[in-house]
Design brief:
This protein is α/β, with parallel strands linked by helices. Helices cover about 25% and strands about 25% of the residues. Bound molecules: S-adenosylmethionine.
Length: about 210
C-alpha cells in the first residue's frame, strides 16, 4: 500500500521547496490538502507525482508545483476574497480556501462543478459556481486576487475590472494550445495595470465570452 502521507511530504521537499516555493502559507496548505481526494481512484497512487492528471470532461487537475507557484504569485497574506476561474477537480480551490477568507470558484462544465461542490463540502468558505468564468463574478467583486487555471488569448477585461486597487490577476495567456505565458497583472490604481511575465506554461483553453 502506497504511503500517501510520506509522498505528500516528499512533494513539499522535492517539488516545491527545492524549486522556489518559499511562502509558508502556501507550503502549509499544500501539506494539508489531500490531492488524492480530488482525482479518480485509479490515479490514486500517482497523486503526488508532479504532473497534471486526467479528471472528467477531458480536463485535468494541475501539476502540484504549478498550483503552488500560481498561489504564491497571488501574494496572499490570509483572509482575502479570491476568485478562481476553472474549478476542475476543486484541488486548487481547496489550497486557496486554506489561506483566503472567502473563495469563489467558477467552472464551465456542470458535471465538474457538481462534483467539486461535493468534494469541497468541508470548506464553508468556498463557493462553487457553474458558468463562464471569463465574465468573473459580479456579485462577489471586487477581489483581492483572481487566478485563472485555463489559458486565454488575452486577459479578460471583465476580470481586470473586478480587481480591487492593489489586487492581482494571475492567468496563462497565449494562442498556442501547447505553450503559453503565465502573467501577473496588478491593478496599480483605478485606471492602470502593471504586467509581469512569470514564465512559460501549458494549460487547457479558457473557453467563454472573453476567452476562446
Ligand atoms: N484548478 C483546477 C484543479 O485544481 O483541478 C484545474 C483546472 S483545469 C487545468 C482548467 C479548468 O478550467 C477546466 O475544468 C475547464 O473546464 C475550466 N474552464 C475553461 N474555461 C472556463 C471558463 N470560461 N469558465 C470556467 N471554467 C472554465
Amino acid at each position: 500500500m502506497v504511503d500517501l502521507e510520506r509522498l505528500r511530504q516528499n512533494m513539499i521537499d522535492a517539488h516545491l521547496k527545492a524549486r522556489g516555493i518559499h511562502n509558508d502559507l502556501v507550503l502549509g496548505a499544500m501539506a494539508k490538502v489531500r490531492r488524492e481526494d480530488f482525482i479518480p481512484e485509479k490515479w490514486r497512487d500517482m497523486a503526488y507525482d508532479d504532473r497534471p492528471l486526467p479528471i472528467a470532461e477531458g480536463q485535468t487537475i494541475s501539476q502540484p508545483f504549478m498550483v503552488a507557484f500560481m498561489t504564491q504569485a497571488l501574494a496572499l497574506k490570509g483572509g482575502e476574497k479570491v476568485l478562481e476561474i476553472g474549478t476542475g477537480s476543486g484541488y486548487a480551490a481547496a489550497i486557496l480556501g486554506e489561506i483566503a477568507g472567502e473563495v469563489f470558484t467558477i467552472e464551465r462544465h456542470q458535471p465538474l462543478a457538481t462534483a467539486a461542490i461535493k468534494t469541497l463540502k468541508p470548506y464553508r468558505n468556498i463557493h462553487v459556481i457553474h458558468g463562464d468564468g471569463t465574465k468573473g463574478h459580479k456579485g462577489g467583486a471586487p477581489f483581492d486576487a483572481i487566478v485563472a487555471t485555463a489559458a486565454g488569448p488575452r486577459p479578460p477585461a471583465t476580470l481586470k475590472s473586478q480587481l480591487k486597487v492593489g489586487g492581482r490577476l494571475v492567468i496563462p495567456i497565449g494562442e498556442n494550445p501547447f505553450y503559453q505565458r503565465l502573467v501577473k497583472i496588478t491593478r496599480s490604481n483605478q485606471d492602470n495595470f502593471f504586467e509581469e511575465d512569470l514564465g512559460g506554461v501549458a494549460f487547457v483553453p479558457l473557453i467563454g465570452e472573453e476567452g476562446f
